[in-house]
Amino acid sequence: MKVMHSICIIFVILNLLILTIMKSTDYSRTVEVFKGSPWEAELVKGLLENNGIATIIKDGLMSTIAPYIAPDVTILVSEERYEDAMEIIRERDKGKDEE
């Protein structure tokens, strides 16, 4: 019972953090910049956020619960940051191709 209570508290805290972030960013118009495995999506998300681009991961809940069976997840960014995000992703992909 204590474990379930702790899990519920964690979800409430995460939801409050997400709501706080979403209020500070206009997500009324978001666009997809990446779709892939949960692991790769986390890498791309980190890369974008390290460059000051706020992201949303869509369909990421299942990847948290069972990452070994999770379907692809999508990364969304605000419309005005789309070009910046795509440039960062292209640079990343170019580096992967050169390896």
UniProtKB/TrEMBL annotation:
<protein>
    <recommendedName>
        <fullName>DUF2007 domain-containing protein</fullName>
    </recommendedName>
</protein>
<dbReference type="InterPro" id="IPR011322">
    <property type="entry name" value="N-reg_PII-like_a/b"/>
</dbReference>
<dbReference type="InterPro" id="IPR018551">
    <property type="entry name" value="DUF2007"/>
</dbReference>
<dbReference type="Pfam" id="PF09413">
    <property type="entry name" value="DUF2007"/>
</dbReference>
<feature type="domain" description="DUF2007">
    <location>
        <begin position="32"/>
        <end position="91"/>
    </location>
</feature>
